[in-house]
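Batch manifest, entry 17 of 40.
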Amino acid sequence: MKDVNLQETAVSSEADNQEQQATLTQRLLMLVVAAIVIAIDHLTKLLVEATLPLYHSWAPFPALALFFRITHVTNTGAAFGLFSGNSLIFAGVAVLVTLVILYYNYTLPYGQGWLRVALGLQLGGALGNLIDRIRLGHVTDFFDFGFWPVFNVADTAIVAGAILLAWLMWQESRQETVDLPEEKAVETGVETAETETQDGWSAY
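Output type: structure tokens
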């Protein structure tokens, strides 16, 4: 009987593991999001490079020119022009980040849709700027809000992915805080039931 129970447990565990594995569609979600980000980022950069001379600005909304313009600038640093002059280093970092994200997406269990979207945004942003570094030796930036360093679509995707990831982590932490008292209550109930059972047998 014990051998049969062990076999049933093993079969059940294998079935659970298979159910927990992500489907191909779920794993492709991150790549689709990344591809969309890369496409939009690349097309907008090409448009700016083709129509606006370097270090020139264009105000699509003249009334808001003091607050928002399209300004064609180059960037050899990280997002938002940070740590300029290290384009080769950040290209290497982008390759490493890409490999880590791809592996992590593959190991994620069933579901995790929003987490895959967050990873896709970050992957698309990293690859979008990496493409620029390879083809130009620098990154093309153009969103200019005056008070903030000029940035592009890839930078926006990276930040959006990071914000979404932080929100998901906060939600998970909040859920764990709610579940913990319930688990303790269940454990207390089980211990109480076991004690009562033992007391009942002792009475005999």
